[in-house]
């Protein structure tokens, strides 16, 4: 068997190379649609490094779907389970996705008008702009100078009825060129991050957990997130905080009575998802979709000194839920911990959707056209959480 050729991704000067030295690898000399006997090595590399880059590759929608499916052969449907997600106007997602008709697991995303594309006569694509979702926005003057924001930090998941995809593929078919932009956090920290135009920003869920102080690790290893029913309909009228890491508590969510939902389809997941190859724990909580938190009591033989919620808790106050999540996740999106990918035409990135968080970033001009394909498949099983040994170690 030929050993696959892995190269480190170029980190920006802003990155903490020690923290991110094991994040992401480029695979050279191997076409992602023809992995053959190298697939198991690629799979191990993906779960080990979180993201894999293939440069200058031609891929059909069918090849992208089949590649993603190889990581979870029993998966079949798009991650949000709706082959017409672009027509579901009650969802916050409908504006940004256009389904490829013959391969409904693959979505067309990007910016600008695209014609005669994979069976779609015409699509007017919209790159997600923070003004459509955030509670505040960057001024026109600052935006003209290249100031922007993270749009929404998330993992790809319906978080209702269907389990989170294991792997997501992003394929950059046409990538506009332009000057770098500056992400401004606008949260009082004065944090900023220079990024390539239209980057996709990634952070490691492992690093996000590793850097937590002991009292937060204790909560994380014992906590479970209960997600809202049909969360992308529930949050449609809500506004995000300036960092894109969660939603303001303004009471703008739809009442549960307004949603047509089934109690049996509600999803409750551990805060920490266990890596199937490395055994590492990844902090993976969707900060916009979470509704309640369950915290298990500290195990009988574990220490209790300095531990928060030693007897367990059920947190139902939405503002408190969001504040706790933000306190846990905000350190993990610090500028030095973000990998902002500099897209080139025909780049393919595969990422471990259960191990990283990501965000759309930036703003394009009216005349700039961006064409991407995205694919993820609702998983055939739920994420594994911490085991007994993990709980005893960190609780």
UniProtKB/TrEMBL annotation:
MF (Gene Ontology): dioxygenase activity; metal ion binding
PANTHER family in UniProt: ALPHA-KETOGLUTARATE-DEPENDENT XANTHINE DIOXYGENASE XAN1, DIOXYGENASE RV0097-RELATED
Recorded family membership: Belongs to the TfdA dioxygenase family.
TauD/TfdA-like domain mapped to chain residues: 19-373
Keywords: Dioxygenase, Iron, Metal-binding, Oxidoreductase
Domain of life: Eukaryota
Protein name: Clavaminate synthase-like protein
Phylogenetic classification of the source organism: Eukaryota, Fungi, Dikarya, Basidiomycota, Agaricomycotina
């Amino acid at each position: 068997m030929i050993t696959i050729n892995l190269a480190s991704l170029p980190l920006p000067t802003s990155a903490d190379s020690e923290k991110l030295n094991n994040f992401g690898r480029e695979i050279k000399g191997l076409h992602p649609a023809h992995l053959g006997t190298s697939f198991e090595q690629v799979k191990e590399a993906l779960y080990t490094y979180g993201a894999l880059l293939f440069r200058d590759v031609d891929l059909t929608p069918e090849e992208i779907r089949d590649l993603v499916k190889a990581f979870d052969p029993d998966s079949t449907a798009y991650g949000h389970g709706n082959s017409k997600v672009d027509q579901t106007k009650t969802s916050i997602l409908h504006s940004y996705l256009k389904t490829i008709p013959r391969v409904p697991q693959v979505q067309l995303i990007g910016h600008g008008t695209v014609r005669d594309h994979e069976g779609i006569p015409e699509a007017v694509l919209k790159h997600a702009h923070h003004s459509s979702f955030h509670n505040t926005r960057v001024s026109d003057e600052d935006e003209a100078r290249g100031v922007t924001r993270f749009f929404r930090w998330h993992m790809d998941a319906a978080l209702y009825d269907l389990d989170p995809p294991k792997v997501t593929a992003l394929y950059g078919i046409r990538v506009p060129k332009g000057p770098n932009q500056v992400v401004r956090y606008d949260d009082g920290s004065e944090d900023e991050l220079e990024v390539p135009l239209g980057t996709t920003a990634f952070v490691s869920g492992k690093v996000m957990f590793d850097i937590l102080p002991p009292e937060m690790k204790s909560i994380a290893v014992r906590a479970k997130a209960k997600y809202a029913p049909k969360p992308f309909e529930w949050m449609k009228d809500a506004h995000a905080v300036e960092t894109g890491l969660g939603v303001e508590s303004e009471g703008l969510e739809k009442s549960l009575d307004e949603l047509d939902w089934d109690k049996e389809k509600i999803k409750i997941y551990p805060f920490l998802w266990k890596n199937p190859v490395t055994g590492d724990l990844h902090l993976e909580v969707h900060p916009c979709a979470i509704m309640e938190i369950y915290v298990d009591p500290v195990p009988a033989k574990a220490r209790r000194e300095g531990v928060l919620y030693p007897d367990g808790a059920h947190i139902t106050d939405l503002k408190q839920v969001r504040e706790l999540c933000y306190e846990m996740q905000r350190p993990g999106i610090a500028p030095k911990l973000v990998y902002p990918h500099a897209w080139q035409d025909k780049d393919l990135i595969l990422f471990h959707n259960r191990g990283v968080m990501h965000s759309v970033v930036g703003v394009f001009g009216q005349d700039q056209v961006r064409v991407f394909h995205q694919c993820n498949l609702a998983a055939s099983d739920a994420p594994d959480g911490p085991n007994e040994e993990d709980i005893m170690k960190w609780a």
